[in-house]
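TA notes. Do not distribute before section.
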Amino acid sequence: MSRLPLLTEAQMRRIEPFFPLSRGSRRVDDRRVISGIIYVIRHGLQWKDAPRGYGPHKTLYNRFVRWSRLGVFDRIFSTLVAQAGVPERLMIDSTHLKAHRTAASLAKKGIDACVDRAASDAPAVG
């Protein structure tokens, strides 16, 4: 098996209190599964393209969906952000922002022209 990035023991100790209790049979290795979920999301992969070392892609997907619905990841992120405090610097990466193809024409026409046209297209009340 190749050296896949895994969360450290210290990182796992910080987030383990947020995991739901296991019901019935013992869960598969949380560290491996959570690391696999992070790997897939960080690299923008489809679940089926996750490295095999993290386990079956269906396990990663099911755990992500189930814990997302339960709000597990929301609680983890909000707690970690609160513990981190106010950052010294904020950065915005705009490489993933997309605009509709007609957005470029708004600057030429002016936003008021688009609003006036939308208002004139509306049916008259009365």
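Switch to the second chain here.
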Amino acid sequence: MAEAHWYVVHTYSGYENKVKVDIEKTIENRNLQDQILEVSVPMQSVVEVKNGVEKKADKKMFPGYVLINMVMNDDTWYVVRNTRGVTGFVGPGSKPVPLTEEEMASLGFESPDVQIGLEVGDMIVVTAGAWKDTVGAIKSINEAKKTITINVEMFGRETPVELSFTEVKKM
């Protein structure tokens, strides 16, 4: 299977978050989780001073652009390119150019290698988030997204929940 890279997608200004949500819905509907791994609108915290009052706010680092970590093929290109609000990939003509590791590191997207020491079937306890203190058995591990899936009983039935490696610990 081909390797995933980060690509830059140009969008209508102000539509970055809508494009992110629409692409994520399409990923789920078409079952492309293994090909489009992450959609990101890079934000940075800034302190604004208005009328003498300091206020923290999140500003888009690149208005009009969305970053996507994906395996480039005809299907993924078509899904992203035909999302409402997307004007195209950044690159010459219709050929998207992936960002280099150095470019991603300068944006703060360094991907540290996480060694989790967990296997399918291991019992874990959730240490953070909405499912804190929940205990479950690992059903699947996604190394690319750095997540695990456990089943949680909700409303009398088993429901799969995806958790980050950093939110769990082995029992």
